[in-house]
Design goal:
The structure is a homodimer.
Chain A (H helix, E strand, L loop, with lengths): L1 E8 L3 E8 L9 E6 L6 H12 L5 E9 L1 E4 L4 E5 L10 H9 L3 E5 H12 L8 E6 L3 E7 L2 E2 L31 H5 L1 H13 L13 H9 L3 H25 L3 E5 L10 H11 L10 E4 L6 H13 L4
Parallel strand pairs in A: 1-4, 4-7, 8-11, 11-12
Antiparallel strand pairs in A: 1-2, 2-3, 5-6, 8-9, 9-10
Helix pairs in contact in A: 3-9, 5-7, 6-7, 7-8
């Protein structure tokens, strides 16, 4: 029997799972989690976690790995991985193939989550899909005509880094100003609330630098500033998504990430901004807007999908 | 011998051409142009122009048509065609197939021009390409991973209608405000100059409502306002294109359309804005930025490419 190994190499933990080839079940046969920043280097943690789930009675056809950061999917070299020390210009694909003697493929974690949602989650059956994950940052993955959008060197699909405040916008994690991520991520929402508090705005928020979660809780208690902070993020998201409808004309938008736990605080604003900004109702009439179904497993499922696509059973 | 018929159904003229199947030559075997708004209806003009070039000694494998406007490439129904009266909800594909008894396919003219440049022009050999045409409006066509980007119902790739001035931007031809087309097209350049003249700006421009061409001529004579009008358009274009690099990670950007005759007036600004706004030099380092090679024939060549792809020789 044939199987695939999927890895979600996150900044806090490395998770591995074994899947039977061709199975539609989203539950893995076995799984293993380990903290990324334990004593041995991340690659050693990774190889031991894989060894632990390596099947004795099945043939492993390939390994798929989701990595948070910039990488080249063709060469499998990680340019850098967020919060994983030592993975700068790191040839992860080659190292895994040498170690385990099976083929390996690597992908960006947000793109892998999009792939997972497309193949096993909310996006099943769609051919044109935008997945956007909103947490500390904003990541995304796009399926065009039944293919994951990668671009020439795997750098496509960075919706978080489109410019939405062209003049003097807030600083983004990438070092540029005015990007969507700087405004509509959890970090952006928290920054806006802190700015307003510093300007003397009244609020029940206790900290001068509240977290997105604290702002969400205050919003639920009716705090005007906190409600506004989420609605403002929703408006910017909706405007950018209207642009993305003009560009990709998808049949489904899927929202994932931690901030979607507060989605009710911004979804009205997102919907209103899409409707206000869309060129023609033809773009939004048949559009499904929904949440990710796989939760924290989206990246792992995407890594599995990547392995299945890259190394089909002969 | 097998052949294809290509049609560029423009608002001022309908052009038809016959191409030998599989030939790499960009020169058609025969061609025919007719004014669109002559006495008979546009569809009758179209059918007579096709009849005139219909070959006696070759088999026509299919007809490809480029149309300026909104259409559904799957059904071949034109929602509306700019400057072609009577083509509202017009089933062009079905009508052509019934009339000529050969298969037909239709595509948006900017997307067909992108396809033409990709298959026979400046984009040959690239798999990830953005084509942008700047004239009265801004059109575009995108090739992702060797496929024309159409989206779920053929409405994708409308780069002219992304929002670049979110608050109180100028009115776009589509009825929304602040779109790239409203700012960086010939119309947008002319509007900006007229606004500045109305504000009392000094200029050698004679008219209070100069055309983009008049502004271009004045810029070449050193007129400060005219130079600024083109540079401003270039800056907005460059910023939007930086966003598009983050989204598509193409290997080539191709500029077409009438305003590119004044490209020297805005290319420095375009390049500077791309460099200023791009997330990482990885997006621009290996990027080719160039002009369309096929001129006015890009749409016709794209219609030919569409026919060849849609109806391959058996």
């Amino acid at each position: 029997m044939d199987a695939y190994i999927a890895v979600d190499a996150g900044g806090t933990q490395i998770r591995t799972a074994l899947f039977a080839a061709g199975a539609q079940e989203i539950t893995p046969l076995v799984r293993q989690s380990r903290p990324t920043r334990s004593k041995p280097a991340a690659f050693d943690v990774l190889t031991s976690a894989i060894e632990e789930i390596w099947p004795e009675d099945m043939t492993v056809c390939g390994i798929g790995v989701a990595v948070p950061g910039l990488l080249n999917p063709a060469t499998g070299v990680i340019c850098f991985a967020a919060n994983i020390a030592g993975w700068e210009d790191f040839p992860l694909k080659d190292k895994l193939e040498t170690y385990f003697d099976v083929p390996a493929a690597v992908g960006n974690d947000a793109k892998m989550a999009a792939l997972g949602e497309w193949q096993y989650g909310s996006g099943v059956g769609h051919q044109n899909l935008i997945y956007i994950t909103i947490s500390t940052g904003i990541g995304s993955g796009i399926i065009c005509n039944g293919q994951l959008l990668l671009g020439e060197s795997g750098l496509a699909g960075e919706l978080g880094h489109i410019t939405v405040i062209p003049e003097n916008g807030p600083m983004c994690g990438c070092g540029k100003r005015g990007h969507l991520e700087a405004i509509a991520s959890g970090t952006g929402i928290a920054r806006y609330a802190a700015e307003q508090l510093a300007n003397g705005r009244a609020s029940i928020l206790k900290s001068n630098h509240p977290s997105a979660r604290e702002i969400s809780e205050a919003a639920r208690q009716g705090d005007e500033l906190s409600i506004e902070a989420f609605e403002r993020a929703g408006t910017y998201l909706g405007r950018s998504l209207a642009d993305m409808l003009h560009i990709f004309n998808p049949s489904i938008l899927i929202f994932g990430g931690g901030v979607t736990k507060s989605a009710d605080l911004m979804f009205d604003a997102i919907h209103a901004a899409i409707e206000d900004n869309v060129l023609s109702p033809d773009y939004s009439n048949c559009l499904v807007i929904t949440y990710a179904a796989l939760g924290d497993d989206a990246g792992l499922q995407g890594a599995r999908g990547l392995a299945e696509m890259s190394f089909p059973v002969k």
